[in-house]
Design goal:
It is built from 13 helices and 11 strands. It is of the alpha/beta class. The protein folds into 2 domains: 168 residues, Rossmann fold (3-Layer(aba) Sandwich); 182 residues, Dehydroquinate synthase-like, alpha domain. Helix 3 packs across helix 4, helix 5 packs parallel to helix 6 and helix 6 packs antiparallel against helix 11. The N and C termini lie far apart (41 Å). Bound molecules: nicotinamide-adenine-dinucleotide and zinc ion. Nicotinamide-adenine-dinucleotide binds next to helix 2, helix 4, helix 5 and helix 6. The site of zinc ion (ZN) has 4 residues, from helix 10.
Length: 355
């Protein structure tokens, strides 16, 4: 087991991430017993797969299963969860255990932040994406209609239990989704890049993924520790995401992680055109992203998607598009392009890459 300790600057708040095979079975019952009252939030899929395990490890603890899926990460579901907590008579010294993917983690974290002005929260991420990304850092939110993550709060969990045992039931699409963020971390961290490059022929191998999860969590934790509220360094985690979000908003056909991989390729090409960079390294990064994608994406709506990049909240004005571009191993740069130029180059890059 590895323990990653988050110590947030200027706050009397620490958070531990415990990771490794067996962590869930070992730590979950002990943690549940350590609170006066516990409440387990999960979703319908995770309950179907792990419901028996949950009741065996935490008998008599109420389990509330929200309907699975991003479309349910809405205020109405949040209110249903809060209502269930009231019904169970949860007190302010209780703890909400969010057992599921990023959707359960985000909405559960927000429910814990709101209930009686804040109760404790433990995150048990069950997807690859939730382990390497969403469960670490304390961002919680729900969507409001079509606007993603617009209602939320910063709230650090007491503890995160990241156990690779959960990966065994993940469909390939969810593995690729998590790989998107792992390759992004590789673009920001030389050590992770080297590991990924050396193992590029087994990127979806569960043993390999289990081994690299802790380094990915450590990378995200390091960034969050230095910039919890996203005023500087945390923006690096947006690498590949300006283009990813634009494509995702435009066509919604692939998983978020697949769009991040495509966005990383496009933004590496933008770096080659506009920034001083290491071209040979960027070629390798692009090859890695393509391997993680498992094939060449075809028919991307480049011309229509550019418009959505204008809506990105990271842009200061409507006339510029800001991307966090990879430039050299472990290095990135913020690149600000006039909208018309971004639009033209996105089309050119997609055509030239065969997307
Ligand atoms: N808070 C943050 O910093 C942050 C960062 C990145 C993403 N997010 C959010 O995370 C969400 C995406 O997370 P996600 O990709 O985990 O999606 P998700 O929670 O919808 O999970 C994906 C699917 O996998 C199922 N599932 C979960 N665990 C499983 C398991 N072990 N075996 C089989 N199926 C399982 C779920 O029921 C769901 O159908 C988005 O809402 C996104 O906004 C938040
Ligand atoms: Zn992402």
């Amino acid at each position: 087991m590895q323990t990653i300790h988050l110590d947030l600057k200027g706050k009397d708040k620490t958070s531990d991430v415990l990771c490794g095979e067996g962590v869930f079975e070992r730590e979950f019952p002990r943690l549940v017993r350590s609170y006066a009252q516990s409440f387990i939030l999960t979703d319908s899929n995770v309950k179907r797969l792990y419901g028996d395990k949950l009741s065996a490890l935490a008998p008599d603890v109420p389990v509330y299963a929200m309907p699975a899926g991003e479309e349910n990460k809405q205020p109405s579901t949040l209110v249903d969860i809060l209502r269930a907590m009231v019904k169970e008579g949860m007190h302010r010294n209780g703890c909400l255990f969010a057992v599921g993917g990023g959707v359960v983690g985000d909405i559960g974290g927000l429910a814990a932040a709101l209930y009686m002005r804040g109760i404790s929260c433990v995150q048990v991420p069950t997807t690859l994406l939730a382990q390497v990304d969403s469960s670490v850092g304390g961002k919680t939110a729900v969507d409001l209609d079509d606007v993603k993550n617009v209602v939320g709060a910063f709230r650090q969990p007491e503890i995160v239990l990241a156990d690779p045992m959960f990966f065994a039931t993940l469909p390939p699409r969810e593995i690729r989704c998590g790989l998107g963020e792992i390759v992004k971390h590789g673009a920001l961290n030389a050590h992770i890049f080297d590991e990924l490059w050396e193992n590029r022929n087994r990127l979806t191998d569960l043993h390999f993924l289990s081994r690299i999860v802790p380094e990915n969590i450590r990378h995200k934790a390091d960034v969050v520790q230095q910039d919890e509220q996203e005023t500087g360094l945390r923006k690096s985690l947006n690498l590949g995401h300006t283009t990813a979000h634009a494509l995702e908003l435009c066509e919604k056909k692939r998983s978020h992680g697949e769009y991040v991989l495509i966005g990383t390729i496009v933004e590496a090409e933008l770096a080659k055109r506009h920034l001083e960079c290491d071209g040979e390294y960027l070629d390798r990064l692009e090859e890695l992203a393509l391997l993680a994608l498992g094939g060449m994406p075809k028919g991307l709506p480049a011309a229509e998607a550019a418009h959505f990049a204008q809506l990105d909240k990271k842009n200061k004005t409507n006339d510029t598009v800001v991307v966090t571009a990879p430039v050299r191993k472990g290095g990135y740069a913020l690149l600000s392009l006039p909208y018309a130029e971004y639009e033209k180059e996105l089309r050119e890059i997609c055509a030239q890459s065969g997307f």
